[in-house]
């Protein structure tokens, strides 16, 4: 019996199970009394037998189908059902339909439900649970309680794709094509999450970085564009002042798409907030933590934001202190700043070069050494004077940055030559000889 039952469960396809069930019944369930034996088989199916992955993928007879067949032996009523299931009246008569026999089978089937504990494996509960689900669908259809065919279609597509396809072919008018895309994901990204950001208190959202990452990981580029537009319209705000630093620092561990998406949203909210100071402070911290060889998405996002802002002294120092591994990031930012706010950047440079002759001044010289000679900063007379004064106080500075101070020296020579050849040398007036006496 054990071998044949294993054969039915592991080797018999679902569509051919009926014939083998009759064969098993004729072999082992035709001898009275069989009530206790059926209960033992139910417990064996629920607890002992666990189908392999190969059997599940090959659509072998599921365990809940065997339970339904054994339960039907106790509940079948009509002669037609008896004849189709048992093939003989003798076999049917051996299966008692007394209340105690039915209760014994049900108790064996739901024993793990009645005596549930945390250490009961879920596979012990799965056959009876699946039997309830399949029976519930049939019962709803029978009593006419199902208003929509969608649950039935989803059930058939998952558990019986062949029958689901046949139903779809028979009733094409009832199977309208769904709109493209995932409606649930789109609703969550464009409605639910923005509502949370707009109305939920900060105390209820301690892990904003996790929520932002989950949002971007499932959002499509179209959804991300719509979120950016709504941020520009100030419908909601995603990055509060005390949270944006944590979000941006956490994003350094995300994948490329997630980093790109978060910087798109940050740029939109940055524009809507008119370049607030909290975001500038967060950018300084991210610049100090990122690796330019690894976090290209973050570096590109920071570059796009910095070129839109007028720097303060803290941000200016942060950019000037970047190592050579960031090149040409500092020079590009400094060049844009010199075009947009030349007076501000010029005053910062002069203050650092004249008042600080230590590492800050060397950092400024290091960045100016990489600038093209035509840049407006290198043409400014105050900056040149401050650089020459720095060389006069410490001659080794000129040796460390030969390109920069070579340009200054050549410019000074050109100025001197121009001034020397600008006006002709005044000739002494000719004196006539005194008249002879």
Automatic annotation (TrEMBL):
<dbReference type="InterPro" id="IPR056518">
    <property type="entry name" value="HEAT_Ints3_C"/>
</dbReference>
<dbReference type="InterPro" id="IPR045334">
    <property type="entry name" value="INTS3"/>
</dbReference>
<dbReference type="Pfam" id="PF10189">
    <property type="entry name" value="Ints3_N"/>
</dbReference>
<feature type="region of interest" description="Disordered">
    <location>
        <begin position="414"/>
        <end position="437"/>
    </location>
</feature>
<keyword id="KW-0963">Cytoplasm</keyword>
<feature type="domain" description="Ints3-like C-terminal">
    <location>
        <begin position="192"/>
        <end position="358"/>
    </location>
</feature>
<protein>
    <submittedName>
        <fullName>Uncharacterized protein</fullName>
    </submittedName>
</protein>
<feature type="domain" description="Integrator complex subunit 3 N-terminal">
    <location>
        <begin position="1"/>
        <end position="73"/>
    </location>
</feature>
<keyword id="KW-0539">Nucleus</keyword>
<comment type="similarity">
    <text>Belongs to the Integrator subunit 3 family.</text>
</comment>
<dbReference type="Pfam" id="PF24566">
    <property type="entry name" value="HEAT_Ints3_C"/>
</dbReference>
<dbReference type="InterPro" id="IPR019333">
    <property type="entry name" value="INTS3_N"/>
</dbReference>
<dbReference type="GO" id="GO:0005634">
    <property type="term" value="C:nucleus"/>
</dbReference>
<dbReference type="GO" id="GO:0005737">
    <property type="term" value="C:cytoplasm"/>
</dbReference>
């Amino acid at each position: 019996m054990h071998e044949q039952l294993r054969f039915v469960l592991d080797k018999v396809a679902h569509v051919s199970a009926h014939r083998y069930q009759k064969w098993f019944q004729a072999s082992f369930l035709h001898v009275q009394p069989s009530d206790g034996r059926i209960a033992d088989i139910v417990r064996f199916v629920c607890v002992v037998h666990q189908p392999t992955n190969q059997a599940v993928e090959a659509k072998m007879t599921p365990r809940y189908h065997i339970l339904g067949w054994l339960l039907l032996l106790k509940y079948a009523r009509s002669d037609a059902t008896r004849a189709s299931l048992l093939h003989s009246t003798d076999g049917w008569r051996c299966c008692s339909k007394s209340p105690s026999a039915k209760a014994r089978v049900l108790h064996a089937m739901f024993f793990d439900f009645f005596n549930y504990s945390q250490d009961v494996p879920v596979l012990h509960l799965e056959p009876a649970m699946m039997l309830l689900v399949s029976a519930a669908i049939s019962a709803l259809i029978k009593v006419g309680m199902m208003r929509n065919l969608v649950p039935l279609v989803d059930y058939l597509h998952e558990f019986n794709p062949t029958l689901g396809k046949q139903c779809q072919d028979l009733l094409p008018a009832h199977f309208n094509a769904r709109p493209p895309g995932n409606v649930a994901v789109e609703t969550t990204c464009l409605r639910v999450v923005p509502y949370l950001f707009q109305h939920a208190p900060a105390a209820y959202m301690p892990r904003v970085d996790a929520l932002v990452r989950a949002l971007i990981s499932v959002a499509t580029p179209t959804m991300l564009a719509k979120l950016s537009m709504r941020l520009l319209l100030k419908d909601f705000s995603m990055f509060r002042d005390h949270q944006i630093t944590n979000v941006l620092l956490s994003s350094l561990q995300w994948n490329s798409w997630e980093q790109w998406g978060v910087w798109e949203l940050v740029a939109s909210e940055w524009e809507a907030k008119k370049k607030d100071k909290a975001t500038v402070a967060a950018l300084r911290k991210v610049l100090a933590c990122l690796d330019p060889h690894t976090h290209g998405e973050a570096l590109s996002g920071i570059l796009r934001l910095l070129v839109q802002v007028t720097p303060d002294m803290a941000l200016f120092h942060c950019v000037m202190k970047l190592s050579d591994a960031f090149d040409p990031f500092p020079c590009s930012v400094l060049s844009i700043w010199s075009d947009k706010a030349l007076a501000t950047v010029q005053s910062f440079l002069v203050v650092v070069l004249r008042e600080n002759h230590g590492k800050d001044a060397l950092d400024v010289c290091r960045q100016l050494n990489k600038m093209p000679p035509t840049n407006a900063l290198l043409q400014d007379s105050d900056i040149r004077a401050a650089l020459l004064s720095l060389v006069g106080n410490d001659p080794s500075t000129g040796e460390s940055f030969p390109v920069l101070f070579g340009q200054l020296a050549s410019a000074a020579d050109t100025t001197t030559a121009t001034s020397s050849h600008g006006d002709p040398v005044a000739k002494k007036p000719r004196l006539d000889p005194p008249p002879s006496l």
